[in-house]
Amino acid sequence: MSLAALKSVIDAISAPTISFTILTVAFPFFFPPTDWFEKIHRKLGFWRLWTKKGGIIGLLLITAFFVLGYFDKNFNITLTKPDNFPIVLLIYSMFFYIWLGMYKAYQNDERLDAGLKPNEYNDPDDKVLVWPDLVYIEFIALILFQVFLIVWSILVAAPIEEPANPAATPNPSKAPWYFLGLQEMLVYFDPWLAGVVFPTMIILGLMAIPYMDINKKGDGYYTFKERRVGIFIFMYGWIVLWLFLIVIGTFFRGPNWNFFGPFEYWDTHKVVALNNVNLSELFWVKLLAKGLPSNILIRESLGFIAVFVYLFVLPVILIKTKLKGTYETYGPTRFVSLMIFGLGMLALPIKMYLRWAINLKYIVAIPEWFFNI
Amino acid sequence: MSENKQAPRAAVGSSTTSPGSDNNDIRRRGFFRWLALGWLAFAAATGGFFIVIIRFLYPNVLFEPPQTFKIGFPDEFSPNSVDTRFKKKHNAWVVRDDESIFALSTTCTHLGCTPNWLLTENKFKCPCHGSGFRITGINFEGPAPRPLERFKIGLLDDGQILVDKTKSYKWEKGEWENKDSFLKV
Amino acid sequence: MEKPDNKKPLLERMGESQVWKSIIRSGVPRTRRQRMHAILGSVFLHLHPARLPKHAVKVGYTWCMGGLSFFLFVNLTITGILLMFYYRPTVEYAFTDIIDLAEQVPLGIMRELHRWTAHAMVLIVWLHMVRVFMTGSYKPPREFNWGVGVILMTLTLLLSFTGYLLPWDQLAIWAVTVGSNMARATPFLGHEGPGAALLAIGDINLIHVGSDVRFALLGGRFVGEATLLRFYVLHCIGIPFIAMIFMAVHFWRIRKDGGISGPL
Questions:
Q1: Which of A69, A197, B150, C52 is the most buried (most CB within 10 A)?
Q2: Nearest CA to CA, how far is B111 from chain C (Å)?
Q3: Which ranges constitute the DSSP H helices of A114-227?
């Protein structure tokens, strides 16, 4: 009874609306970007996640979730699909290594506070020989990993389904797991944005990181305190907007791309009301109680204004007010790139919440020109 | 370096006005002209080569199923039904409503998956992202931004219906008014 | 000719033989000098410097992820070449060849090894990126190499994606259909992308289903025979070729940008 209740609670909070909100709200408390968050982070004990105890408890919770899933007849089906095993590895390894990085960062932060050099520091004259000190480590790592791969290959057969049939689309049809973050974005954005513009911006944005981050500290050692804003922004994008969307896409998206809790049965006939409306319809039809104007540009004018304000007016306002100091230290070129990539990144959660709150489909909807935002 | 380049140019002007000036400038001017021409030719050849390579990606003949096909006589299709016989081979549904017959493309307008005709729910439903289309092809749920496309349809002399996939009609452009996009019955 | 000294241990005698010395010029690497020579003299090992600061050889600092990424690439090349002996990229044979690889070929786990190594490589490359970010190793003078790394990560994903189609089963064809259909919507270059309709001469659209960027990728209007061949070629030669060039730059620049990062 209590197990079933626990499962239904997990099912309920897994819904993107709730889990995404929880993650987003909790995120700055785990990676505090400002003094205020840092204070709460210390006071309420969020920092304990980055201690040995926190890491072990985290790993145990993940294990408990998978054990529960393994013995659940619904979750078992998704969990044991051979191509989903990498996701299990992804969850474990990403948690462990991000924890490890933060754990080492916190150790170094304490050393730096005490006026010591970071753990990684050593006397420049005291060097070790690559043969054998490094070569044997590489050799052992390589052998261990090869053994792991062979064991994995023996235990899990590679998936092979029915021969390709262009006429029968399986339900659901999923991209390879590493692209499921993009496929999840497709729920909220049109293909030209989610499939072309965003991937391009992700790649360019990643490449631009070293040029936008002018903080000279924290080069060559783990630290959080000296680069907290940078780490916060990167980790939010990486964990919440990429890895978490992959997990949703793999475990929580069933037939017709409907949401299913991990312990829920994938019912093909689950009915979900999908009556999304465009901003133009909201404005002209619902608010003004008129028909849609026949001129496309007038019809979508409100959407165009909204996008224009978001992309062009908002940064100017920010320069004048809150980010004045940032603008002055970063200079115009860096500030503009920060704004382009930052606003692009934020567009995803904004659109998600607009969808969930008012069923908004498109801000600008011109299907005639394949131009939907 | 840049100074060297600037200097002759300034001298060139004076050399044309005074014919007796240094020969060297004229030779240098000629050299830069040939250099510019050479680079231009190089750029044009490289550009042309890349265009040829891109053109190489598009073959002249495609070994795909024919784009036009016969589907039978109009009275073979019962009113208000969807005929799914041509889905597998030709990627088209033949729909007959109260007054017309039309051929719908089976390509979902969202990401090109193939939706399924759900008889009981009277709609086309795409398994990839859950887009739903009414029997007319109009989208009403899910992420699909626009209705399914219709193919050109017409009667042959022998009374059979011919579907031509090379021409498609989009609702949002008002093309479903076009006489070739449906067959009156 | 010097007479071999039979009293010396075998290993030592081997280390002094002409054959050994012709391969490893410094003999058995025992002394500090010989050990440095072992690294410097080997075309493979001289990717590394001869000496490193202490923190740089610690697994706790590097997590060994960069080295593992390269190792997995080599691993995938070898298993991939072996798979190519049996696999024919045609609609007629592709699927059955994959089945045969498990059932008719000795050591029936070659495809598993290849597939799981590929998945692992995506993970390892991502972890490598997280590590480099967490240690701030992208900061000057290593900005450019971080960019090269991002390109290599993208190429890893593309390699994995092109390989996904080759088994030619339902999983493969639909994952690739969903993925490649996004190319339809490429602005200006895709036939369902914004702005594509502007590229027209009079009534004739320049960008249509038979001339857009997706067609160049698929070699047809839908995922079919030509797509299988194009993806096969990209997977086996095209992308690995590009990746190797970028890898060479990546490794070279690690050394030229001052070796592995560390605190000053």
A1: B150
A2: 5
A3: 130-133, 135-155, 180-185, 191, 198-212
How is B32-80 classified by DSSP, letter by letter? HHHHHHHHHHHHHHHHHHHHHHHHHTS-SS--S--SEEEEE-GGGS-TT
Q: Which of A91-95, A222-226, C185-189 has the lowest mean pLDDT?
A: C185-189
* Chain B CA closest to residue C174: B113
Q: CB-based contacts of C251: which residues, under 8 Å, 6+ apart? A: C47
> Average of pLDDT values for A346-369?
91
Same domain flag for A7 and A57: yes
Residue B130, pLDDT > 80, answer no
The CATH T-level fold of domain C61-256 is Cytochrome Bc1 Complex; Chain C (1.20.810)
User: Average pLDDT, stretch B39-60?
Assistant: 93
**Which residues neighbour B89 within 8 Å (Cβ) at sequence distance 6 or greater?**
A167, B65, B69
The reply to whether B174 touches chain A by the CB within 8 Å rule is no
Chain C's closest residue to B91, CA to CA, is C222
A249 and A330 belong to one structural domain: no
What is the tally of structural domains in chain A? 2
DSSP letter for each residue of B94-126: EEE-SSEEEEEE-S-TTT----EEETTTTEEE-
pLDDT band at B7 (very low <50, low <70, confident <90, very high): very low
Q: Indicate the helix (H) or strand (E) that contains C205.
A: strand C204-205
In whole angstroms, give the CA distance from residue B6 to residue A369. 50
- Over residues A144-161, the pLDDT tens digits come to 999 999 999 999 999 999
Q: What are the structural domains of chain B? A: 2-56 (no CATH), 68-184 (2.102.10.10)
Domain containing residue A305: 279-372
Type of residue at C103: E
Please report where in the chains the tokens 């510019």 appear, as a residue: B36
Compare all CA atoms of chain B with the CA of A255 and give the residue at the minimum distance: B127
Residue window 130-189, chain A: list those with CB within 8 Å of chain B: 166-173, 183, 186-187
Test mutation, C117, C144, C151, C170, chain A, max A CBs within 10 A = C170
B87 Cβ under 8 Å from any chain A Cβ: yes
Other beta carbons within 10 angstroms of residue C72's beta carbon come to 23
